[in-house]
């Protein structure tokens, strides 16, 4: 089936048109990068899919649900552009706390599982305020997926990460059985993330296809 669908979606902020008719269909289980320069409409697209923003017109479904419904919320994992974990809690406490809020069965073991996968073991008792930017970003990615979401929407997840750290995040994402759409403005990052790409510019989809095909066109 189709897990992410947008049909002729438009969105304005006051007089600024952010989206001018976005169309996409992402099959369940597929992985896509959402590429485009700053201002293209990537964050707005993701916020609409998460239900944080309402489109002005058009149709949106995630996992078959309208994004503003609770059913949709439960299956979505979202990393906002400006993710901020709880600053006075430790890395591990953040994962346990958010895991518990989102109904994870055994939040403590889930927390350890993610900590190990992301090579964060030495920092598990470190308060977020004392974490490096890179480790804070890794934690933010882990928080986005702590509840085993079926549809994963990540806004520039590899920001602030050096190459080895990018690799551990990509490895962890690769191991997940989920549909994912990950935004980036960096082509090299998109190439590492997925075989499929959607390119947007000025609030419209200008390319939707495989990375291989895109390379042949270039
Ligand atoms: P991207 O994520 O690709 O950088 P955005 O979705 O953030 O693009 O932005 C798309 C357009 O909408 C840009 O022109 C941006 O300046 C504008 N925009 C985004 N957020 C707001 C906002 N809160 N208020 C006004 N304009 C905004
Ligand atoms: P409520 O329904 O009690 O108002 P929220 O709207 O905060 O609670 O969250 C509802 C559901 O949305 C949560 O159970 C969780 O599955 C999901 N959710 C909220 N925030 C995020 C996020 N950043 N990433 C992934 N899922 C989230």
Automatic annotation (TrEMBL):
Keywords: ATP-binding, Nucleotide-binding, Transport. Pfam families: ABC_tran. The keyword Ribosomal protein does not apply. GO terms for molecular function: ATP binding; ATP hydrolysis activity. Residues 4-218 form the ABC transporter domain. The keyword Iron does not apply. InterPro entries: AAA+_ATPase, ABC_transporter-like_ATP-bd, ABC_transporter_ATP-binding, P-loop_NTPase. This is ABC transporter ATP-binding protein. It comes from Oxyplasma meridianum.
């Amino acid at each position: 089936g189709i897990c992410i669908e947008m049909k002729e979606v438009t969105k304005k902020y006051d007089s600024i048109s952010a989206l001018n008719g976005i169309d996409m269909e992402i099959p369940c289980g597929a992985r896509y990068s959402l590429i485009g320069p700053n201002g293209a409409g990537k964050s707005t697209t993701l916020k609409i899919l998460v239900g944080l923003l309402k489109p002005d017109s058009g149709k949106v479904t995630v996992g078959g649900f309208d994004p503003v419904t609770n059913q949709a919320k439960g299956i979505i994992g979202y990393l906002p552009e400006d993710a901020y974990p709880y600053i006075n809690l430790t890395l591990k406490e953040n994962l346990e706390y958010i895991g518990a809020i989102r109904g994870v069965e055994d939040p403590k073991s889930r927390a350890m599982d993610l900590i190990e996968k992301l090579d964060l073991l030495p920092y598990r008792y470190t308060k977020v305020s004392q974490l490096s930017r890179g480790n804070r970003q890794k934690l933010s990615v882990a928080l986005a997926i702590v509840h085993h979401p079926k549809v994963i929407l990540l806004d520039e997840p590899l920001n602030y990460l050096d190459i080895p750290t990018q690799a551990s995040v990509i490895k962890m994402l690769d191991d997940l059985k989920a549909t994912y759409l990950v935004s980036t403005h960096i082509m090299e990052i998109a190439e590492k993330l997925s075989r499929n790409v959607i390119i947007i510019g000025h609030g419209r989809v200008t390319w939707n296809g495989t990375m291989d095909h895109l390379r042949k066109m270039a």
